[in-house]
Amino acid sequence: MTHIGSLDAGPRGTIADVAGVTVGHCTLAQGAVQTGVTVIRPHDGDMYRNKTPAASCVINGFGKSVGLVQVDELGVIETPVALTNTFSVGTVANAQIRAAIAANLRVGREDPSVNPLVFECNDGYLNDMQALAIHEAHYASALDACSADFERGAVGAGRGMSCFELKGGIGSASRVVHIGGNASTTGVLVLANFGKLQQLIVAGDALGRTLQTSVDEKPEQGSIIMLIATDAPLDARQLRRLAMRAAAGLARTGSVYGHGSGDIALAFSTAYTLPHDADFITMPPLIADARLDPLFQAAADSVEQAILDALFSAETVAGRDGHRRVSLKDALRTTP
Hints:
Blueprint: E1 22-30, E2 33-41, E3 50-61, H1 68-74, E4 76-77, E5 81-85, H2 89-103, E6 118-121, H3 136-144, E7 162-163, E8 166-167, E9 169-179, E10 182-193, H4 207-211, E11 223-230, H5 236-244, H6 246-252, E12 262-269, E13 274-275, H7 293-313, E14 317-318, E15 324-325, H8 328-334
Parallel strand pairs: 5-6, 11-12
Antiparallel strand pairs: 1-2, 2-5, 3-4, 3-12, 3-13, 7-8, 9-10, 10-11, 14-15
Keywords: Aminopeptidase, Hydrolase, Protease
GO molecular function: aminopeptidase activity
Protein name: Aminopeptidase
């Protein structure tokens, strides 16, 4: 797969190149049920008691996520980030709440409630979402599986997802930059479930036009969730600016942010945490706004690379009612 841009990738080439970030999946793949849960942990501690600075950017708001309002208000996340299908958001949010209560018995009583954070994409073409197959135990399984080494493609929340009318799913990438003599890593994980085949661009090449054999007039009804992690010391305002640059990488792959597409980015920093019980908070020196351009480039390049990673990592999957999504690799093999 082509390397996007001029910046070097980290050693894994995934979001886990940002130290402390781990990812876990629980995959359900049987007949009409093709779905799952993916969990991203910014650190391995108690996220309710040691919150992670974060911010979101809604590029197109056709989505049913939980937790974004409070993230934008307070600038922190206090649970792991969960990805799943549209109809399973409530179930996974309940699982996050139960996990927070189990670790902190004062939650919702003496202490404030917890803000679960769940993102979704609609995998209904391949997966029978009406089966409501995701249970709280699947979130727990994905959380327990969190590791710096994780699969990409048609796994976890990405199992039933489609991208450019091909098989989509989980993709990841990373880039390393130098600011003021210090190295900083930015990593991205995407849940890719968007786009029309004719729009697909791979490293500047309008590949979708080559692969398309007939015109599909149906409107786009997909989504993409883009998670950006960085070890650079940024506050929530700066992280929102970083999240906005996800749109640049998304556009390079051919997306036009269609009417029915929920395109959402979340950026967080692992450079420090915000203690729940603190009266005062000591933050590290932040990178000056005028020096953020390398991080913006890293975010845009990593998002583009992660989308391509999802496409190239995925396998062909058959699901409900005989529906089938061919992987990009299989499509290229059969193209004259």
